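re: that complex we talked abt at group meeting.

here r the seqs, copy pasted straight from the sheet so there may be weird spacing, ignore it
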Amino acid sequence: MAQLNNGVAASVTQKQPLWLLAEVTYRCPLHCAFCYNPTDYDKHTKNELTTEQWISALRDARKMGAIQLGISGGEPLLRDDIEEIVAEAHKLGYYSNLITSGVGLTEKRIQAFKEGGLDHIQLSMHDVTEDISNFITNTRTFELKKKVAAMIKSHGYPMVLNVVIHRYNIDQVGKILEMAEALGADYVELANTQYYGWSLVNRDQLMPTREQLDRAEAATNAFRERVGNKMKVFFVVPDYFADRPKKCMNGWGEVFMIVTANGDVLPCHSARVLPGMTFPNVRENGLEWAWKESPAFTKYRGMEWMKEPCRSCDEKENDLGGCRCQSYLLSGDAEMADPVCTKSPNRHLIDEALVNSQNPLVREQPIIFRTDKNSKKYVEGDKERIAQFHALP
Amino acid sequence: MENNIQHADIYAIALHHRFQWEEAQQSYVILFPEGMVKLHGGAGEILKRVDGKASVGDIVADLKTTFPDAEDIESDILGMFDLAVGKAWLRKLN
Ligand code: SF4
Ligand code: SF4
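got the structure back, here u go
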């Protein structure tokens, strides 16, 4: 989002859902340790919305002002109607973005996307070295990504690479950027893992050290200096290392509206983790009601819900108290200041996590990969930990 | 600030960017991967004239005719070009 700039270009002022994120399926051929999908995603893989239901959701959201459309998952390409959805999105005037791991992207499909008017494809890359990539995704898909990257480029799409950064690849940020340059990337997002969903389960194993982070930032800056405007690099720092929280989702119910595979409408990826909340569903409630009036969307919109220290904090407009889900997941209190904030009584939880991740005994625990079997375990254990944020600069 | 922008320059909307009118926002917007920009009245009027054919000079002249009462409109226009080029929303064709 652009900032206020000479009074000529400004970010959004009123509350309209500018961004519609369609998580069309939670099925996925990969098993990433850092996946931000719900740890109980297994129970959401059934009962997916039909093509017609998606198309009418797109129409309704567009009428309410949504312009940017993200089609993600899971792996969206596991649905065979993405071509149809994309074409409809284009007719409606969306700027559409397919977020894919690249698995399932064929020459034939990409051609149909191009003809249908898809605006860009964001490819998630894991690492430069096949070893690490295949280790983290638990599959041998890395070679394929390279082919897919070339395919995206050859169809005239902007090449947007998203690389999730964690302890196992952070030392290779320089090389990752070089590879992105060689592939012809126009945008690269180096998104440090945020700890929700599967990545929270694996937090101690994934979290880099402060020194690793500093080196990675220095490498990124050196690269930027060399390459200039040709390639935009976004480096998303993990909030655990900051002393103020992120303005989660740019504010609850301010800009983003997420429709999940089964039609639930969420203000943020991980909202389902919060206790005592019922979310609207496109099958029963209109999107308009969901956005404007549903208890789920109004509950944490704005600043009314805050308690101390946020309520009287003079920085509250900057971060709106941070992330409700992170606060709940770490402290059990959804309405407390995000534990990342040094003014929060729960900051010690973050500091302890930082210390733990340096503890060799904890960090050498095996990583729990995202698999159906593990997901069932979480459904049963009712340890629902859901996701957050798709790294948006 | 606007010393880079010349009257003879010709610009187009940058690749992979889209400029369009948004009914819900009642304004023009520029859309691009992972982001958008909403353009307030004057900025929208300027950028909607950027079509890969009209030079900056043409656009200045056109806007002066369209808004005869606006004062010092030229430096506003050049300032907007400067901003849009700096943000890589526009690409230079000549
Ligand atoms: S992070 Fe990995 S497992 Fe999770 S949805 Fe994306 S590609 Fe699939
Ligand atoms: S106390 Fe609350 S509002 Fe203030 S900076 Fe911390 S999280 Fe933000």
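couple things i noticed - Helices of chain B lie at 41-47, 56-66, 73-86. Chain B has a mean pLDDT of 86.
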